[in-house]
Amino acid sequence: GNRTFTMIKPDAVENGHIGAILEQITASGFRIVAMKLTQMTRRDAEKFYEVHAERPFYGELVEFMSRGPIVAAILEKENAVEDFRTLIGATNPEDAAEGTIRKKYATSVGENAVHGSDSDENAKIEGAFHFSGREMF
Ligand code: GTP
Ligand code: MG
């Protein structure tokens, strides 16, 4: 697949890292196909993270992801899903490789600065959750 979906999460937006994160993403060869500043309602976040509903951190995750604006974007590059997950680093910034976006900008395992789709199928679903066809270029 050549597309993935990302969100710059509320912590990174609050901490003023939108510009630096977008710069690292585009410098790494990803083209921005769609992008907006938006805020998920609690209900949006519950639906977006439905697969994690049984996890102990689900409530915390929904609360966090709906507490402020995010940057949602669709990115294009060969091998996009895998390469983007390499660029952002491990879920827990303490385990993330040096130079990765989460190593540089995440504050904790929960508030970890960015999202990256984990499969081509989910990239499509997640992109469609946030964007209409007319918003993709
Ligand atoms: P995403 O790209 O955001 O999907 O992260 P991921 O694929 O690296 O992790 P995963 O899908 O397993 O978890 C989704 C999100 O739930 C993480 O990015 C964190 O924001 C949050 N999360 C995961 N594990 C924990 C945890 O142990 N505690 C808390 N509070 N949040 C967690
Ligand atoms: Mg995930």
From TrEMBL:
GO terms for biological process: CTP biosynthetic process; GTP biosynthetic process; UTP biosynthetic process. It is found in: Cytoplasm. The keyword Lyase does not apply. Its cofactor is Mg(2+). The active site is at 115 (pros-phosphohistidine intermediate). Keywords: ATP-binding, Cytoplasm, Kinase, Magnesium, Metal-binding, Nucleotide metabolism, Nucleotide-binding, Phosphoprotein, Transferase. It catalyses: a ribonucleoside 5'-diphosphate + ATP = a ribonucleoside 5'-triphosphate + ADP; a 2'-deoxyribonucleoside 5'-diphosphate + ATP = a 2'-deoxyribonucleoside 5'-triphosphate + ADP. GO terms for cellular component: cytoplasm. GO terms for molecular function: ATP binding; metal ion binding; nucleoside diphosphate kinase activity. Its main location: cytoplasm. ATP binds at residues 9, 57, 85, 91, 102, 112. Its EC number is 2.7.4.6. Residues 1-135 form the Nucleoside diphosphate kinase-like domain. Homotetramer. Belongs to the NDK family. Major role in the synthesis of nucleoside triphosphates other than ATP. The ATP gamma phosphate is transferred to the NDP beta phosphate via a ping-pong mechanism, using a phosphorylated active-site intermediate. This is Nucleoside diphosphate kinase. It comes from Salinimicrobium sediminis.
